[in-house]
Amino acid sequence: METFKDFENIHAMLRETVGRRGGYPAYRWLTGDGQPQEVTWKEFYAEVRKVAKALMAIGVQKGDKVAIVSYSCYRWVLTDLAATSIGAVTVGIYQTLPAKDCCFIIHHSDAVLVFAEDRNQFDKLLEIRNEISAVRRVVLFSGENPDNDWALDFEEFTDQGGDVPDRAFAEMTAAVAAGDVAAIVYTSGTTGVPKGAMLTHDNMTFTAQSVEKSVVWYPDDHLFLFLPLAHVFARTCVYTALLCGCTLTFNRSMDLLAEDLKTARPDWFPSVPRVYEKVQAKIMNTAEAKGGLALKFFNWALAVGYRVSDLQLAHRSIPPLVSLQYKLANQLIFKKIQAALGGRVRWCISGAAPLNPEVGRFFHAAGILVVEGIGMTENTSFSNLNRYDNYRFGWVGPPGPGIEQKVASDGEILFRGRNVMKGYYKMPDETAATITEDGWLKTGDLGEIDDEDFLRITGRKKEILVTSGGKNIGPAAIEGHLATSRYIHQVCVVGDRRHYLTALISLEPEAIGAYAAQHQVAFSSVDELGQHPLIKKLIETEIAERNKSLAPFETIKKFTIVPEFTMDNEMVTPTLKLKKSVILDRFKDTIDAMYR
Predict the structure, then answer these.
(1) What is the pTM of this model?
(2) Claim to verify: residue 548 and residue 571 sit in the same structural domain
């Protein structure tokens, strides 16, 4: 039976870590020229107090909502810990969201203060100032005050708290209870209006402990973070690192991800599947571009890696000759792949969306373990995780300690535990429809649980397609299967109330570009390539090959290559989930044409 500490609040968890790890590095970040800077846990705690006092000085009270519109950075975490320490509620907003979406979240959450990453984010907020009249001030994380009565730069803001006594700060932190709301995290809104999940201090501190008990940690581990802190997946990783006292390094930007990984040299990092897919595609394209003997040796090394991977998954010993071959393959090929991720990565976590099992197997063959897990905003982004010494590809693992799981009579996966949200902010009906009277969270996922308590997700309850022939089909598994092609980026399977299944396909830019160059096809854009007969034939072949392992009623009969689904064209969420209702509406004529 696992035991859990009942922390009074997040601030109490922070204080305990500072007591244990005070002189050790807590957070690192890179300057514009790539030079690392850091603060110790003791220094970080002093800054948390300073920012918390500034919040108090400008009138932030317990329960007030403080929004943050910024890329992940040190000041994001600093502000979050300061706000929650005094009982305020953090509301994270993706910095990539357009002004109208920011407006909805800020207005609906009743935010009284907004922290903005820079002048660009501030200008976006200025567009909607009249609609968010409850916001008293906007504080910029970087840049000087843009000479606006609504704005404060960060230094001006922190100077506000100089006269707040320590006793007042201590009284506010002591008044925060475990059941108080610490964050409102808005769902991505794939099927409608975003809902604000209220996560309590106990949700956060319990989940951090459950994650900590599910993985192999060492006190001097270095974590690397590039995921958006507006998503609770990243926040859960931050709180877990805080609990353990590990060092966390922030990425400067996605454009500098590869460079920053090499500088940070993390022991582990969390990511969404898309990053692993892009790294794999780049490795494969580079190998094919070299061709000749280099490509043959790469394929030999990969074959050896897959054999070792299969033996490890089966918990079988590796024959001496195979072990020797793998050492050679690792020295000459795989170490280069490992170096691209910093050179000392022990393991990685994949979450927020399904990981293609073939991608997991590829990295495992190369000596990098990517463990897949699952969670949702409503359960603090953690319910299940493959273990470091007990994992499978294509499954999301057993539940974390202290978390119950079961399959309902209709196949829906349900969870119960201290990680389940308090409810949706100002949405009692939606809360009642999502959490049962006895505390079970309805996930909307369909799946199966085996006799070892491993969970496998098979589809989404709301996305089940019913063909005109009466067949019930979960499109997610088919979409994932088609996306195993290195030339296919995104897949949207269509077929509800239709005679057969079709698909909208977007292309993987690097792989398709390399293929076109190899066949001497001139092109100015990936979208142009999508209309070329050679590329259409390639995708047709890729789909036909994957159709062979599907039941006849699951096979894709026709497809259309379309431009990438992006946030800019409003067809994916900030977590890269497809907005299927938008896609089906946008491509209605294209879809209808496939059924004529």
Answers:
(1) 0.87
(2) yes
